[in-house]
Each structure stands twice: as structure tokens, then as C-alpha cells.
Amino acid sequence: MKRKDFLNNLIAEVTNFMLEGNPLRLVVSLHQESDGAHLSFFDDRKRNEAELMKIRKALNPVHNRPELAGYYGMMTGHDSSWDARLKLIGWQVKHASVNNSDSGLQIDLWLGSDAFNPADFTIDQRR
Amino acid sequence: MKCEANEKGRYFLLGSLLLCAAVMGFLTDGIRLTIFSFLEIQTVSARLVQDYTVLGVGGALLNASLVAMIGLLLVYFSSVTLAGPTIAAIFTMFGFGLFGKSVTNISFILVGVFIASKIAGKSFGAYSLIALFGTALGPVVTLLAFDLNLPLYFSLPLGAFAGVVIGIILPAVAGAMLSLHHGYNLYNIGFSCGFIGLFVASLMRAMNLLGPIEVTWNTEPSTALTLLIPLFSAASIIYGFLSSGQKVMTSAREVVALQTLSGRLPTDFFDAVESQTPWINMGLLGLASFAYVTLTKSSINGPLIAGMATVMGFGSFGKTLKNSYPVVAGVILATLVFGKSLSAPGPLLAALFATTLAPVAGQFGPAAGVIAGVIHLIVVESSGAWHGGLDLYNNGFAGGLSATLIITLIHWYKTNRTKEDFINEA
């Protein structure tokens, strides 16, 4: 339940963000292991470098903020009517990568315990 | 516990300000009277509105400094960053240490939140903000322990137990309350504490244990109290300019840039500018608050300092001059329309604390802010009685209700615009 809730909220927040760009296509991919998970999001709207940097910055905060993740992180994925706030996600994931794929924006999120190794995940290896 | 240079400076400034306030207390009343009134404060029920400065300015300032120092030590030892939200919490704790929070009544709630963090398998740091702000329900502890004329061997454990239980349930309630107003009420824990307070007050009323609310409001002028906020504000502004290590104009431009942020939770201004300029914003808000209170010709007392210190604190976590003034204007407008006095305790505190709704103005514009201020004053005049004055952040409770109403209406409008339907949708 805890993991399902967490994944559900992350997916809701990121898709909220991507839907703000009004894409014609949006794909969400989940790969789960016992010690972690990899979430990939693809749409068909490419972003310029400044936009990519802004997204990267929001998803990869410089400092760990457990006080913000533990409390305000509870808002993640709960309010699709308002602007998406990727920083809520950034405090809660291990790492995020943001790039333009062949078709549009691709956001990858890695989450899990410290023992979790993102390299074990097939989608990442393929890239 | 590892600190960066910027953070060390923040600890130094906050520690110095708290020490300065305690020293001002001792200088005002002398060591003996200060300690005597400090001890007396620990046994006051502290329901709204009980101005500790009536018992002694020295004791009140010592209590406020110690309450905030406990918060500061907690931030340090729980390895969380001393930045926007934690600085807001420390300033708020200091302010309410002058009317409602005491070293006694905050301790058990902190223990309760610590237990909740262990139950949830999280670090205490993850719940540290809930713990710091959650001390708003401190009066429940002291009311049960000292105000019901029960034998102390029974009432003391009862008060302690109630504080711990409140601390345990707070994180769950706080998370749910955030979802109601979507981060547009800055004092979300005040909203959560008000919600819990409704049940506690109802239970106590059912047992005939809760008397009517009384207002203790110090009208005696005090030099120490009058100087406190201008001193804190000046120190913040000077520190903001000096510690940023950049040209004055660069810092000034960053302060102007902060004014463009909506302030919706969680907006840490120290993240937004990556320098120390949020201190300048805090200082400016402190001076603006002080100017407003002075214009109403009110004597500076404990509750008013709490209001001004809270406004200052949130100057690093959501409040700016630009998003705050419309809400204050709304409160002033409602006060005049309903024929109340601007210098009466209720409207005066509402004008300061209503800035909890600053993000409404920041996001939806000044008109929305004025409407929020009007609604806030109407609600806050009644909401204190609902929870029997047990929630010290009554304005946070009223602000949460007001924000929920406003945001719900906007949400309904936004999600029912027919122009966004698919073509030929029925």
C-alpha cells in the first residue's frame, strides 16, 4: 500500500506536469524490483535547453530536505488543477534524468533504498 | 549536524537574537523577578489569549527565548537544513513563547511527534516541521495539568499523556489538511491543530471542563518589548546585505525578484535566490508590521510581537510585501465595514496573522487577496471559540478554512470550463 501510494502520487505529479504541455501522446513505464523502481515518462513535445535545465534543477535538488519531503511531500500528486510542482518529487527520489528523446520529453525517475542499483534496470541499460 | 558556512551564519544570527531577547528580559525585570515570572508562566493554562508579559516582561522574554532555542537545537540535532521553513518555525516559536507556548507545554508534543516518526519508520527530521509548529496545541497540556483543580499526581501525567497523543496524531492530520487548501494557507499546522482542537474542546465541554475564553492583554508600555521587532528587523536587513557577499544593488534586485513569487507552500526563499537576501525580505516585513501596529496606537505586547515575529519568520517561506498587503487591506476593510476598532485585539492580530493567506494574493492577484482578508476576519472572530482557544494558531485555523473555501470555488470553476471539453462532448 505504501509503495503503491508513493508510485501513484509520483506518476500523478509528473503526468500533471507533462499534460500541461497538452501532448498528443504520453507514455508511462514502470519497472519495479524489490529494492527500487524506475519510472519513465515520454511525451511528444520536445523542450528547449532552458526548459530542460529548469526541469532537471527541480527534480535534482542540491540538498537533501527530509523536513520538506516528509511533510510537504504529502502534497505530491494531489492537486492536478494547479501548476505541477516537480520539486515535490525531487526531494523524494534518488535521482532523476531529463532529456529530449527522438519524439519528445523523457523524464526518468529512480527511487528505492540505498542498496538499489539503477544499472540493473533494463530501460536504463538499453539507453 | 553538518553545516555549511551559510547555515552556520544563520545559526549564529538566530542564536544571537534569542540571547539578546533573554538579556533584555533580565535587564528589564532583574534576575530574581525574571526567573520567578518564568516559573509562573510554566503553570499557566495558556489558552488564547493569555499575554505572558502581564506576568512579567522578563520572564516572558526568557520563556520565548528558551522555547525558540529548543526549536533551534531540535533543527540542529535532527540534521535538517536551517532555511526558510525552519527559520519561520523558530521565529513563530519565539513569538508564541510570549503568549501560549512554554518550555513545559511544548515538550510533550515534541515527544509525541518523535514517537509518530518512529511508528512511520521515518527520521525525526522528516517530521521536524510538524513537531516545531505542532507545539501550537501546548495549552491542552497546561490546561489539563494545572487548570482543572485536579490533584497534581493525576493532572500532571494526564496533561503529559494528552500532549504525547496529540503529537502522535498530528502528522496524519497535517498531511490531510494540506490537501484541502493545496498549500495556499501558510500556517497549515494551525489549521490541523484547530481541527484536533475541535475534538478536544468538544470532549472537554461534554465533561464540563472547559470555561469561556478570556483575553489577557497587556496595555502597559515596555521599552524592551517596543524595541524588540525593530531590533530583530534591523539585524536581519544588515545581516542579509553583509552576508550575501554581493553588491548592495544585486541584493536589492533579488529582494525585488522575491516579490514576484506566489509564496504557495512550500516556497523556500533561500532556495529561490541561493543567497542570504531573504533576511532582507524578513526585515522589511518586520518593519512594515511594526509600522502598522504603531499606526493603530497600540502598546506592543506579547501577542503583537508574536504576530510580527511570525510575519518576519515567514518572510523566508512564502510572505513578501507584495503578496501580504492585499490580505491586510482586506482585514482592514472588513474591520471598518463591521464597525470594529482597528486597535482591538482581534482585528489587530488578524491583520498580522491573516498574511497566512498571502499565497492567495500571490497566485490569483490583489483582488483575491483582499477578498481572502475579508473572509478571514469574519471567520477568525468566531473560530477561537470553536476550539476553546486551545489552538494557539487560531488564525492558521481560520486561514485554512478561508483558503479551502476560496480554492474549492476556483477549483470548481477551473474544472468545469466548457471551452476545454472535447469537440462534440455532451
Describe the protein in words.
The complex is a heterodimer of chains A (127) and B (426). Chain A is an alpha+beta fold and 127 residues long. Chain A has five helices and four strands; from the N terminus they run αββαααββα. Chain A is globular and about 30 Å long. Chain A has helices at residues 2-19, 49-59, 66-71, 87-90, 122-126; strands at 26-33, 36-43, 95-100, 105-112. Chain A has one domain (2-126): 2-Layer Sandwich (Heat Shock Protein 90), CATH 3.30.565. The longest helix of chain A has 18 residues, at 2-19. In chain B, helix 2 (57-77) runs antiparallel to helix 3, helix 4 (103-119) crosses helix 7 and helix 9 runs antiparallel to helix 12 (278-295). Chain B has 18 helices and no strands. Chain B is 69% helix and 0% strand. Chain B starts with a helix and ends in a 12-residue tail after the last helix. Chain B has two domains: 5-179, no CATH class; 223-411, no CATH class.
SSE layout and pairings?
The complex is a heterodimer of chains A (127) and B (426).
Chain A: H1 2-19, E1 26-33, E2 36-43, H2 49-59, H3 66-71, H4 87-90, E3 95-100, E4 105-112, H5 122-126
Antiparallel strand pairs in A: 1-2, 2-4, 3-4
Chain B: H1 5-41, H2 57-77, H3 84-96, H4 103-119, H5 128-134, H6 138-146, H7 152-181, H8 188-206, H9 223-243, H10 248-258, H11 269-273, H12 278-295, H13 302-313, H14 321-337, H15 345-353, H16 358-364, H17 366-386, H18 394-414
Helix pairs in contact in B: 1-2, 1-9, 2-3, 3-13, 4-5, 4-6, 4-7, 6-7, 7-8, 8-18, 9-12, 9-13, 12-13, 13-15, 14-15, 14-16, 14-17, 15-17, 16-17, 17-18
